[in-house]
Amino acid sequence: MPSGTRATPSIAQVGEFAFLSRLLPSLPHTPGTLIGPGQDCAVIRGLTRELLLTVDALVDGVHYRPGWLAPRHIGRKSFLVNVSDIAAMGGRPRFCVVSLGVPRAYPARQLAAVERGIVAAASSCGTAVVGGNLTRAQALFVSIALLADAPRRRVTRQGARPGDRIYVTGTLGDAALAVRALSARRQPPSGARRRFAEPPLRLRAGQYLVEAGIVSAMIDVSDGLLQDLGHVCTQSRVGARVDASRIPVSATYRRALDADVALALSGGEDYELLCTVPERNVPKLERSAATLGCPITCIGEVVRGHSVRVRNADGRLRRGGATGYDHFRSPQG
Ligand SMILES: [Mg+2]
């Protein structure tokens, strides 16, 4: 990340508490926040229904390299990757707490931009930032814990059954296309770069797919389609067949890679929803395409067994395998 300059004091120069004393009063207050930030815990209105709780982090040097994301986008993306997990279970995000790790020399003004990115993204999803923590760290990280109202139905990765159709929202591969170009110090196509910086919002789609009882299993695609489909198959004790020619890709992707969908199958960071739909629910799903707020495409079907196989253009099946992103193996995310 850019280092501090004389014009803009570092967070070490401003100080944690001075920084927080300016930040905290600026956080939006919602009616459900009984005691907001500044105490040991936030007090939120007693909820009589089930809640969803998730946490995720974005780490400098792990999820991106210097210059890949503007500070505001670091904040925004940190929140949206959490929302993606909530969307995958059909929840309504309500409250979050933020843990920031910051190198001493990190410019305070940029840290304020990170915070603004988090708060703006949270507000746009009806979520209040009710607290957090700031610590010194070797590299910038943003960790967010997000609480959501759970839907009445519980949809997990475990409900897929042989015969179910496999659907995916939006398009796949653009974020991976951007990462590949950026890693090679090339300028990615602008559409791909935008997609890397800004995960799609699939809350409405997730809520509808769960509440309308359409899906038997769901997951968000964060580590690559084949890997995340593999998680569904493992947990549901089924296999899957995916048709490579049906993988939805953007015009940007097609211009860059033509019909080669390898990156769309295993690239990662798509944050689309992958779901399985019993055949009896397919007509209902096809009728409700407009309600979802995004395209949804059938890419294959659930089968007996335990392997994920991909049918290529030549009609041959090959083993999909888990070829997506692994935090402790992959060199760069
Ligand atoms: Mg997930």
Count all strands and give the number. 13
Helix and strand content put the structural class at alpha+beta
The H-and-E topology, N to C, reads as HHEEEHEHEEEHHHEHEHHEHHEEE
Bound molecules: magnesium ion
Structure, described:
The chain starts with 10 loop residues before the first helix and ends in a 14-residue tail after the last strand. By secondary structure, it is α+β, with helices and mostly antiparallel strands. It has helices at 11-14, 16-23, 71-87, 108-124, 174-183, 190-197, 203-211, 225-236, 251-257, 262-266, 282-287, 289-292, and strands spanning 33-35, 43-44, 51-59, 92-102, 128-136, 141-149, 165-169, 217-221, 239-243, 272-277, 296-303, 308-311, 317-319. Residues 1-5 have low confidence and may be disordered. α3 runs parallel beside α4 and α5 (174-183) packs across α6. The chain is globular, with a radius of gyration of 21 Å. A seven-stranded mixed sheet has the order 8-10-7-11-9-12-13. It has a four-stranded mixed sheet with strand order 3-6-4-5, with helices on one face. Strands 1-2 form a two-stranded antiparallel sheet. 32% of the residues lie in helices and 24% in strands. Residues 85, 88, 220, 222 line the site of magnesium ion. Magnesium ion binds next to loops.
